[in-house]
Structure formats: C-alpha cells, structure tokens
C-alpha cells in the first residue's frame, strides 16, 4: 500500500461576478495550485504569516473526462501532529467537489457539470453557496 503525502499551496480567487451570474449553473473563480515541500508552514511562519486554522482532507479523487471529482471527509486536528489518533471528523458527511480547469468564457462546461451533478442528486445535496452571506471566518 502506498501512502502519498503531498504538500501544496492553493490560492482560490473570489467568485467572478458578471452579467447573468444568477443563471449560471456553477460558481466560476480563478485557482492556482503550487507544489511545495512539507516545510512550507515553517517558511511562511518565518515570513510573518499566521495560521488561522488547519484541517486534514482524506478521500478519493475520480476523473470523468476533464472533470475532477473529489469525495472526502474533513478532519480537525485535536493535537499538534497529524496521526490517526489525533484527528476527529468535523461531520459524518462527505464533501463532494466537482471542478474543471478551463479558460474563461466557456459556460458550456458549467452545463456539463450541472448534468453530472444531477446524476448524484439521490445521494448528494448540491447547491451553490453565496459566499457573501457567510461569516467572515468561514469564507474561503
């Protein structure tokens, strides 16, 4: 059995606001992933950054064409180091994330995602989230 430990930084931009956003089937925003060494936390701390929260995501990744489907459980760390005994699930639910990397202006891809999401409906409650209505501490 192989266990892969990956460290990366992810920047997720603000949802793009445009004409017809209410009619869009998906939320569109920019994203940048950067692979890095596992000492990135020490590096950022030395630069003066402060950690607000930490979580562990464990799950599965599936691909369907260009679409990436992540099915994972989110755990909070109850002690300083991540281990099987030092984590506890935040909820009994799984997080299902559908994403596609695409250039801007391709709304047809959003329709493909919506069609796939409809197939999951008996098992998964899918909804668009209005991030403006979340408390500041919960917004991504």
Question: What would you say this structure looks like, in words?
Answer:
The chain is globular and about 45 Å long. It is built from two helices and six strands. The C terminus is likely disordered. Strands 3, 4, 5 and 6 form a four-stranded antiparallel sheet that branches. The protein has a two-stranded antiparallel sheet with strand order 1-2. It has 140 residues and is an alpha+beta fold. Strand 3 and strand 4 form a beta hairpin. The protein has one domain.
Summarize the structure.
The protein is α+β, with helices and mostly antiparallel strands and 140 residues long. Helix content is 15%, strand content 28%.
How confident is the prediction overall: mean pLDDT? 77
Strand fraction equals 25-35%
Kindly provide the radius of gyration, computed on alpha-carbon positions and rounded to a whole number of angstroms. 17 Å
Oligomer: single chain
Please tally the helical runs, counting DSSP H or I stretches of 4 or more residues.
Answer: 2
Task: Let me know the number of strands.
Answer: 6
Overall spatial form: globular
- Secondary structure class reads alpha+beta
Task: State the end-to-end CA separation.
Answer: 33 Å
Helix content: 10-25%
Q: Structurally, how many domains make up the residues?
A: 1
**Contiguous uncertain segments of 5+ residues:** 136-140
Give the SSE string.
EEHEEEEH
Task: Summarize the biggest pleated sheet.
Answer: 4 strands, antiparallel
Protein name: Mediator of RNA polymerase II transcription subunit 18
GO biological process, one term: termination of RNA polymerase II transcription
Keywords: Activator, Nucleus, Transcription, Transcription regulation
Subcellular location: Nucleus
